[in-house]
Every structure is written in C-alpha cells, then in structure tokens.
Design goal:
The chain is an alpha+beta fold. The protein has one domain: Nucleoside diphosphate kinase-like domain (Alpha-Beta Plaits, 2-Layer Sandwich). It is 40% helix and 17% strand. It is built from 7 helices and 4 strands. It has a 4-stranded antiparallel β-sheet with strand order 2-3-1-4. The N and C termini lie close together (11 Å). The chain binds inosine-5'-diphosphate and magnesium ion. Inosine-5'-diphosphate binds next to loops.
C-alpha cells in the first residue's frame, strides 16, 4: 500500500446513532476518496485480532465488547498524506480533547465510544486494510 492511503471504521456508536451519512460526507468533503467500503458486524475473535496491539491495556475487554455491540462501516481512503490528515480530521482519542469541527468532537460521546477509527501509521494502514479487504475488493 502506498503512503496516500489510510483505513477507517465508523464504530458501532456512530452507526447506531445514525451518523454514517454525515461522517462519510465529512470524509469525502475533506478530500478523501473512497477506495473500498463495507458494512459488517465483527465477531469477538475478529475484534480481538484487530485490536491485538492493545491486548494488555486495561480497557481491552471493554473495547472488544463495544466493537462487537453492533455493525460498523470499514473503508480504505485515499488522499495525499492520508494517515496524518485523517488523524487530524477525526481528532483526539478522547472527544473531550478533540478540536472543534473534528469527527470525534461532533459525533463521539466518550473515549471508549469515540465514533471512528483511523490508522496511526502507513504500516498499520496496510495491515488494517488487508484485515478487512482482499486485493480484488479495492481499486
Ligand atoms: P486511537 O483510536 O485514537 O488511535 P488508541 O490509543 O489506539 O486510540 O486506542 C484504541 C481505541 O481504544 C480508542 O479509539 C478507544 O475506542 C479505546 N480507548 C483508548 N483509550 C481508552 C481508555 O482509556 N478507556 C477506554 N477506551 C479507550
Ligand atoms: Mg490507535
């Protein structure tokens, strides 16, 4: 994967609160192109594997329970400087600390139910995209 791509998930809170359309609009109007997208409900083992890097953190169990509490939208996005620019667009992990106008500020209620995921590096964007999409599912 090239450095102009990132991976995102619209998390169960934002899906159940009816924010899919607004969030996709924020993403595309910020210059990101959708390369691949799917709507799905993660299994427990899929969520544990996806967040495996956080396995030892105290919130791991709650994070997995939350991520399997309802369907999500997974997508690969393309833009120059995608990883960094998308982290800026979504805002800080804790919505209380997120900048005005960011997706988490607008749509997230708490640090655990924080509306959206964004990859934190090009390497993880690649790993996370491959977790959800096979090569024939993307342009
Ligand atoms: P990020 O999503 O901003 O990259 P990470 O530190 O990678 O944040 O954490 C992954 C996810 O785990 C967060 O998006 C959030 O849903 C959850 N999380 C992180 N820290 C906490 C916490 O202190 N309590 C509860 N959940 C947390
Ligand atoms: Mg992270």
């Amino acid at each position: 994967m090239t450095s102009n791509r990132t991976f995102t998930m619209i998390k169960p809170d934002a899906v159940s609160n009816g924010h899919i359309g607004n969030i996709i609009n924020d993403i595309t109007s910020s210059g990101f192109k959708i390369i691949a997208m799917k709507y799905l409900h993660l299994t427990q083992s899929q969520a544990e594997n996806f967040y495996g890097i956080h396995r030892e953190r105290p919130f791991f169990k709650d994070l997995v329970s939350f991520m399997i509490s309802g369907p999500i939208v997974a997508a690969i996005l393309e833009k120059d400087n995608a990883v960094e620019d998308f982290r800026t667009l979504i805002g800080a992990t804790n919505p209380e600390n997120a900048a005005e106008g960011t997706i988490r500020k607008k749509y997230a209620k708490s640090i655990d139910a924080n509306a959206i995921h964004g990859s934190d590096s090009n390497e993880n964007a690649d790993i996370e995209s491959n977790f959800f999409f096979s090569s024939f599912e993307r342009f």
